[in-house]
Amino acid sequence: MESSASKQAPRRVDPALELQSDPQELLPRRRPTQERSRRKFDALLAASRELLVDVGFESFTCEEVAARADVPIGTLYQFFANKYVIVCELNRQDLVGVQHELAQFNGEVPSLDWLRFLNAFVDHMAGLWMSDPSRREVWLAMQSTPSTRATGAIHEKAFAEQVSRMLAPLTPQTTRERRTMMAEVLVHVVYSMLNFSVQDDQSHADAVAELKRLMVAYLLVAEKESRTTTTTG
Questions:
Q1: Are 147 and 15 in contact (CB under 8 A)?
Q2: In this predicted structure, what is the pLDDT of residue 111?
Q3: 199: left (phi over 0), alpha (psi -120 to 50) or beta
Q4: Residue 81 — φ and ψ, nearest 5°?
Q5: What predicted TM-score, i.e. pTM, was given to this entire model?
Q6: What is the rounded CA–CA span in Å between residue 182 and residue 178?
Q7: What is the count of structural domains for the chain?
Q8: CA angle (18 as vertex; 17, 24 as ends), nearest 5
Q9: What is the H or E stretch that residue 207 is in?
Q10: How far is CA 186 from its chain centroid?
Q11: Between residues 85 and 16, the one the model is more confident about
């Protein structure tokens, strides 16, 4: 006779952990529209940041998030299917914040002094990474599964679209497709280097200085190529 254990249904694998041929973006089940629900939603995200910094993503649980936020676990699951969705929402939150910050600088980009703008904005972002350790923890957590990585790529692409538009005055003769690729490269390099800069035993100032060198060299070449195209076209 078969044992009772052998008759049990196989344990269902979390979809976020499955190797998928076409990973889907992980999204909250719903986002709040009323003030009371919004406060609970925000409290859950704030508690998630604290927990990530305290214990890391491997030991991160939805139960502990709900307890820290003083929100019933059932309410958490009304918004988030699992911890992977939570961390994706934190990542989206971080990128939207940076997009808003970048929009504040946008008026300076068409000016001839774009190197000063770049220097100032990289310093600003580096300051965010130094003052908020949860940013690196969120970024690391986003590397944990195919679906979180796919979601992170979607978030980065949306940010890169904004950067691509800002590159237009610097590279007026560059094709839109090439400019989009340049923007995606820049966003990926910047995020990778900023997270590298706050690793243990890493000189933050030195890493940020190297990031600036990389970006300046890359954009100077792009500007020169675009100007050459204008001259010879």
A1: yes
A2: 54
A3: beta
A4: -70, -30
A5: 0.81
A6: 6
A7: 1
A8: 90
A9: helix 204-232
A10: 13
A11: 85
- Report the 10 Å Cβ neighbour count for 53: 15
Residue 166: inside a domain, yes or no?
Answer: yes
* Residue 73 forms part of a structural domain: no
Domain membership of residue 5 (yes or no) is no
The domain containing residue 113 runs over which residues?
88-232
Indicate whether 14 pLDDT > 60.
no
Domain CATH code at residue 171: 1.10.357.10
Closest CA to 44 of 96, 86, 88: 86
* pLDDT of 141 over the 60 cut: yes
User: Is 138 part of any domain?
Assistant: yes
pLDDT for the residue numbered 88: 98
- Listed in sequence order, the residues at least 6 apart from 118 whose beta carbon sits closer than 8 Å to its beta carbon are 212, 215, 216, 219
Banded model confidence at residue 49, pLDDT cuts 50, 70, 90: very high
Structure tokens at 70: 């003083």
- Whether 137 shows a pLDDT value over 60: the answer reads yes
CA torsion, ordered 21, 27, 28, 30, to nearest 10 deg:
-110
